[in-house]
């Protein structure tokens, strides 16, 4: 395999077109990373257990194996000039093992921190940034003591493995505590957990930051609406005060510097009524709430990720137009397809997933607009997302 890295001025090692990017995980995020990589002239390999997965359909080659198959990760590393991933639950040890074989510019500290809610909260606080009050809790005595400090309502989350609201419980009273006590007595055990104060937020938001290890740029802060713990819509930009926009930008740069970030990092935020900006969690990769950047920004989150891991310079992304992004889950595929013909303003993305399942992310639609509130109302008025209205 020819090494196509090039020293520029003896400073930054840049990966040149023709080099191969290996992606662990072949879902929609990998697919959109691969599409960015392809038009910049990179080759793409992907590791995923599903043959012809969403990323495999647009990659040069796929290694079909489980994500934690060390032989397969080694194979991908041997065939790649740089290795990245589309989700955070990657075996960091397996990536450390191939560091001599291929470049891993994101490192593994970022993975180890973002895989573990206690380490993540500590890292965020250590970098001068607010989270909900929290305590690590590993048994009922520690939970009782933590509730003494944090009080009801509080949220109990497992330290690892949870996503989109799975592995978490809201505790509003002693009755809720009794429920988990009896479940644990019946053999449920007590997984390592974190207790967080419940944040009475005005709305949820997020901000993306991208880096090349040395320089960092942020995208605009956006507003996110969840239904049943799954992202439903993103409205870009969020209508926030200058103070909130500045805080979000500054905390994103602080965290990116702390990680010496290469690639894209998503930061999920709570914005309170009195304009506090509180970090909920981090995702060490492009994020569903950043899909609007494909049409609405001068550089999108996937381009930024690829440029960052390739050691390329990053221009400051500009918002070219306000936008609304809505997710297409399994139950929305048919109704939205029926309306494509009458909605030329819809930028339709389909991830090429073979199996359509209820609540599975199958695609998304982005609408560029001068009037986001009207666009949200127009989208909802189509009736395509009515199932979420009823359950919300
Ligand atoms: P997470 O898995 O941490 O992203 O949480 C999923 C969702 O649960 C978030 O998007 C919030 O809507 C809600 N949530 C999580 N943590 C808290 C908290 N400490 N206070 C209030 N709501 C929370």
TrEMBL record:
Entry keyword set: ATP-binding, Ligase, Lyase, Nucleotide-binding, Purine biosynthesis
EC number of the protein: 6.3.4.18
Binding site for ATP: 117, 157, 162-168, 196-199, 204, 226, 280-281
Gene Ontology molecular functions: 5-(carboxyamino)imidazole ribonucleotide synthase activity; ATP binding; metal ion binding; phosphoribosylaminoimidazole carboxylase activity
InterPro entries: ATP-grasp, ATP-grasp_carboxylate-amine, ATP_grasp_subdomain_1, PreATP-grasp_dom_sf, PurK, PurK_C, PurT/PurK_preATP-grasp, Rudment_hybrid_motif
GO biological process: 'de novo' IMP biosynthetic process
Catalytic function, reaction form: 5-amino-1-(5-phospho-beta-D-ribosyl)imidazole + hydrogencarbonate + ATP = 5-carboxyamino-1-(5-phospho-D-ribosyl)imidazole + ADP + phosphate + 2 H(+)
Function: Catalyzes the ATP-dependent conversion of 5-aminoimidazole ribonucleotide (AIR) and HCO(3)- to N5-carboxyaminoimidazole ribonucleotide (N5-CAIR). Catalyzes the ATP-dependent conversion of 5-aminoimidazole ribonucleotide (AIR) and HCO(3)(-) to N5-carboxyaminoimidazole ribonucleotide (N5-CAIR).
Subunit structure: Homodimer.
PANTHER family recorded: PHOSPHORIBOSYLAMINOIMIDAZOLE CARBOXYLASE, PURINE BIOSYNTHESIS PROTEIN 6/7, PUR6/7
Family as reported in the entry's similarity comment: Belongs to the PurK/PurT family.
Name of the protein this chain belongs to: N5-carboxyaminoimidazole ribonucleotide synthase
Gene that this polypeptide is encoded by: purK
